[in-house]
Design a protein that fits this description.
By secondary structure, the chain is mainly alpha-helical. It has helices spanning about 5-30, 45-50, 55-90, 95-110, 110-125, 130-155, 160-165, 170-200, 205-210, 215-225, 230-260. The longest helix has about 35 residues, at about 55-90.
Length: about 260
């Protein structure tokens, strides 16, 4: 006979959820604070959202961040899918251990080391720091995460489906596009979302690799917080939370719909 959750288990779950999400809830609530003091409630107001859309520096940082995140997540997902295919389908090729180690290295490497090494690389090759250097750096950071997610799905994928498509005359690339890719699409979408979120959140690597005109939102927020938290920071953070949450919910609904129609 199965027993229901005990009072201790319920209390532990509630405490854990409160620890994780209560600060986010407070941030969202205080984004509607009429007072200039972020810790003193002065009544409900949307004035800081209006002020936010007049702050050109923050808006420029948001635009740069979204472009970098979209480009790096797309590149990391494509390269991560190819890397996962190589490790799952290519067997024990020469240099596999080195290839796997280099792919997964950013998972365990401190971001400050990765950022410094990328900075030295860009300086050595004479590449001016800006949008493209941040995008390359974020692709390097998120590639390993995308590879892990897609590889986990490919390991459980039945290759007989792709073999059947090739037996019916489909070339390998067409069999992959029409058979394998639709089946691993949820994992690919999850890898893209994870890479996109990690790029949005990154501060350390972007600080090393950014240049004039390529200031990301985390860098802008960090600079502003050092001089005192502005209510506009709460507003932009709330919008960012809503944006990411909407994307996660959309992917979840897509996967649920896909399971129902399968």
């Amino acid at each position: 006979m199965r027993k229901g959750p005990t009072a201790f288990n319920i209390a532990a779950i509630v405490a854990g959820l409160a620890f994780l999400y209560l600060p986010i809830v407070l941030l969202v609530v205080y984004s509607f604070n009429a007072s200039r003091l972020v810790t003193v409630w002065g009544g409900f107001s949307t004035r800081w959202y209006a002020a936010l859309f007049q702050n050109e520096q923050l808006l420029d940082a948001v635009w740069v961040t979204v472009r970098v995140a979209f480009a790096s997540a797309t590149m990391a997902t494509v390269l991560g899918t190819l890397a996962a295919l190589g490790m799952v389908r290519a067997g024990r090729f020469r240099g596999r251990t080195l290839f796997s180690s280099m792919t997964y290295a950013p998972l365990v490497m401190p971001e400050v080391i990765l950022g410094l090494s990328l900075l030295l690389l860009f300086v050595a090759v004479g590449l001016p720091r800006g949008f493209w250097t941040v995008m390359i750096a974020h692709t390097t950071l998120t590639l390993c995460y995308a590879t892990v997610v897609v590889q986990a799905r490919l390991v459980t994928f039945d290759e007989a489906l792709e073999d059947a498509a090739r037996d019916l005359g489909a070339p390998p690339w067409k069999a992959f596009v029409l058979v394998t890719l639709p089946n691993i699409a949820p994992a690919v979408a999850a890898a893209w979302m994870l890479a996109f979120t990690l790029s949005l959140d990154d501060l350390v690597i972007a600080s090393f690799t950014s240049g004039p005109g390529a200031t990301t939102l985390p860098m802008r927020i960090y600079s502003a917080v050092r001089l005192g938290v502005s209510p506009e920071i709460n507003a932009i953070s709330t919008l960012l939370i809503g944006f990411v949450a909407t994307g996660v919910i959309a992917v979840y609904l897509f996967n649920q719909r896909r399971r129902r129609t399968a």
